[in-house]
């Protein structure tokens, strides 16, 4: 959202608490319970008879690209292979950060539980995808063969960040979305 007149959106990940907070233009923010939302999505996909929601179909294209100075490999994801991600190694895992070189055993977060890691071993393509880090530098969503949305990293800078960057400014108001599992209850005025 950097090119919008209102400014940029910022996502704050708190993996210990299992929360993701998105600060949006207009000085509003939304907090989502990551674990609950993931479970809700898993149940929804199962009820629709779709593939394993934790390990959707994943295909390496073999195509590589350099984005923001880092080499990444294109992977297609999803039942209809309509997500194209260019994923870099050595930059950690999206939303988790850190330098990851220990393969699947290094994934010790909410998103990668021991049970999920054991299940991943039954999916060789996922083992290859996750090993050494999986940080998407470019993501395109397609529908009927046409690109409907693209996100791409424009700059990567390695440096320690001040703790104040991860605090919600006091002049931001929380926006609650009713009737969505994993989201906080609606705000009553």
List the defining traits of the structure above:
single chain, 189 residues, alpha+beta, five-stranded antiparallel sheet, four-stranded mixed sheet, globular, disordered N terminus, disordered C terminus
Overall pLDDT confidence: 75
Q: Which sequence of strands runs across the widest sheet?
A: 4-5-6-7-8
Sketch the major β-sheet: 5 strands, antiparallel
The total strand number stands at 9
Give Rg in angstroms: 18 Å
Q: What's the SSE pattern?
A: EEEHEEEHHEEE
Instruction: Give the proportion of residues in helices.
Output: 10-25%
Termini separation comes to 29 Å
SS-derived structural category: alpha+beta
List the total number of helices: 3
Instruction: List segments where confidence is low: pLDDT < 50 over at least 5 consecutive residues.
Output: 1-5, 96-111, 179-189
Which term fits the overall shape?
globular
């Amino acid at each position: 959202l950097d090119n919008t007149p209102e400014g940029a959106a910022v996502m704050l990940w708190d993996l210990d608490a299992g929360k993701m907070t998105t600060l949006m233009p207009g000085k509003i923010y939304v907090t989502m319970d990551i674990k609950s939302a993931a479970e809700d999505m898993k149940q929804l996909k199962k009820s629709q008879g779709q593939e394993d929601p934790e390990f959707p179909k994943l295909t390496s294209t073999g195509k590589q690209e350099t984005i923001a100075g880092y080499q990444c490999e294109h992977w297609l994801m999803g039942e209809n292979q309509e997500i194209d991600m260019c994923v870099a190694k050595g930059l950690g895992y999206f939303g988790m950060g850190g330098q990851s070189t220990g393969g699947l055993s290094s994934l010790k977060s909410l998103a990668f539980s021991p049970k999920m890691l054991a299940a991943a071993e039954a999916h060789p393509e996922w083992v290859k995808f996750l090993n050494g880090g999986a940080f998407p530098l470019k993501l395109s969503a397609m529908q009927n063969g046409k690109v409907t949305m693209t996100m791409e990293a424009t700059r990567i800078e390695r440096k320690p960040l001040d703790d104040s960057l991860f605090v919600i400014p006091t002049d931001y108001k929380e926006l609650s979305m009713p009737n969505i599992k994993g989201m906080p209850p609606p705000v009553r005025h």
